[in-house]
Amino acid sequence: MSSLAAETIEITEIKPGMSQAVKDCISGTVGGIAQVLVGQPFDTVKVRLQTQSTANPLYTGMMDCVKKTHANEGFKGFYKGTMTPLVGIGACVSIQFVVLEAMKRHFTRVNSRAKNNGEFLSNSQLYLAGAASGLANSFVSGPVEHIRTRLQVQTGTGFSGPIDCIRKIYQSYGISGIYKGQAITMLREFQGYGAYFLAYEFLVQDAMKKNNLEKRSDLPTWKVCAFGAAAGYAMWLTIYPMDAIKSKLQTDGFTAQTKQYSSALNCARITFAKEGAAGFFKGIGPCLLRAAPVNAVTFMGFELAMRMLS
Q1: Span 252-282, pLDDT tens digits
Q2: What local confidence, expressed as pLDDT, does residue 7 receive?
Q3: In this structure, how many other beta carbons lie within 10 angstroms of the beta carbon of residue 244?
Q4: pLDDT (tens digit, 9 = 90+) per residue, 199-220?
Q5: Residue-level pLDDT at 24
Q6: What is the per-residue pLDDT across 63-74, written as a single tens digit (0 to 9) for each?
Q7: Which residues does the chain have with pLDDT short of 70?
Q8: CB of 206 within 8 A of CB of 143?
Q9: Are 164 and 131 in contact (CB under 8 A)?
Q10: Nearest one of 239, 237, 230 to 201, comparing CA atoms
Q11: Which residues have CB under 8 Å from 299's CB, separation 6+?
Q12: 249 near 264, Cβ under 8 Å?
C-alpha cells in the first residue's frame, strides 16, 4: 500500500481546471516512482514475513529474511514484482492527488458559503479528503498489490513476471481473481489515507500558524519530509492488522480445495486463534523502517516536479 500525501500549493491559490489536474498527475507519478524504487526491498521483506507458514516458518525475523533472500536470490530478490507497482503506483498516486485536490477545493467552497475561515480545512474535512483519495485509489492499488504480493512471495518457479501472472490468473479465475482481497484493500485505503492526510495536514497547518507563513512552499523541505514520515507512521500504526490480513488473502489459494480463508473476517479469526495478536503485526519492523525514507523521496519527487511544472 503504497503511504502518501504531498506538499501542495495553498488551497486558496489552486485554480480548478485541467491544467492543475495534469500537474497533480505528473508530479504524483514522479513521487510514486521514487516511492517504489526506495520502498520495494522493505515491502518484499514485510510481505514474506506476513505470509510465511506458522507451522514451518522460513524466517526467524526481519534480518534473517534479509540474509536468506540475499543468499538465495541475490539483490534482485528484493525487487521481485517491481514492474507492476512501478507502473501502477504512478497511476495510484496520480489518482490520489486529483481526488485529494478536488475534495479540498470542494470543502473550501463549502466553508466559504458558510462564511467560515477557508484558509485551513477542519480535521474532519482533511480526514474525509484523504479517505476519498484512498478509496478512489484502491480500484487500481488492489490488483497492483495483489500481483506484486504473489510475485514477492514466489521463491521457485511459477509466474515468469507480472504479465504472466495477470494472464494466468485472469484465464483461470476472471476479473474477480485479479481483484482478490479487494474489500479489505478498500477498507485499508480509506482508513489509511484518511489518517495519513489528517496527520500530515495537521502538522503543516500547525507549523504555518506558529511561523506566520502564508504559503506551504515557505516550509523548508526537511520539515515537509519530517511531516510526511510522521504521517506515514500514523497511517501504518492504524492499518497494519488490515494490511496483514490483505497479504494473507492475496497469497491464499483460489479454489475451495486450496483456500485457507473464506473471507477477511475468517482470516482474522484464524490468525488470532493460531498466532494471537502478534500475528497481525508480523513484518511491522521493515514497514516502519520503510516509512521515513519512502515518504521523504515521495515528497521530494512531488515537490521538485510541481515546481518545475509551475
Answers
A1: 999 989 999 999 999 999 999 999 999 999 9
A2: 43
A3: 27
A4: 988 998 899 989 998 887 788 8
A5: 74
A6: 999 999 999 989
A7: 1-18, 116-119, 156-157
A8: no
A9: no
A10: 230
A11: 6, 7, 31, 221, 224, 225, 228
A12: yes
User: In this structure, are residues 90 and 298 in contact, taking their beta carbons and an 8 Å threshold?
Assistant: no
Task: Please state the three-class secondary structure of 93-132 as a single string.
Answer: HHHHHHHHHHHHHHHHHHHHHCCCCCCCCCHHHHHHHHHH
Q: At a CB cut-off of 8 Å and minimum separation 6, what does 136 contact? A: 95, 96, 99
Identify the pLDDT of residue 80.
79
Instruction: For residue 277, give the amino acid letter.
Output: A
Q: What is the DSSP letter of 283?
A: T
270 to 101, 188, 256: CA distances (angstroms): 40, 19, 16
DSSP code of 10?
P
What region, left, alpha or beta, does residue 276 occupy, with left being phi > 0 and alpha being psi -120 to 50 degrees?
left
- Collapse the DSSP code of 310 into the 3-class scheme (helix H, G, I; strand E, B; otherwise coil) and give the result: coil
Residue 189 has which C-alpha cell? 485505503
- Please give the single-letter amino acid code of residue 172: S
Long-range contacts of 171-174 (CB under 8 A, 24+ apart): 172/254, 173/254
Does this model's pTM top 0.85? My answer is: no
Which three three-digit cell numbers place residue 287?
514497514
Asked if 96 contacts 139 with a C-beta cutoff of 8 angstroms, the reply is: no
Main-chain dihedrals φ then ψ at residue 208, nearest 5 degrees: -65, -40
Strand (E) positions, 139-203?
A: none
SS3 184: helix
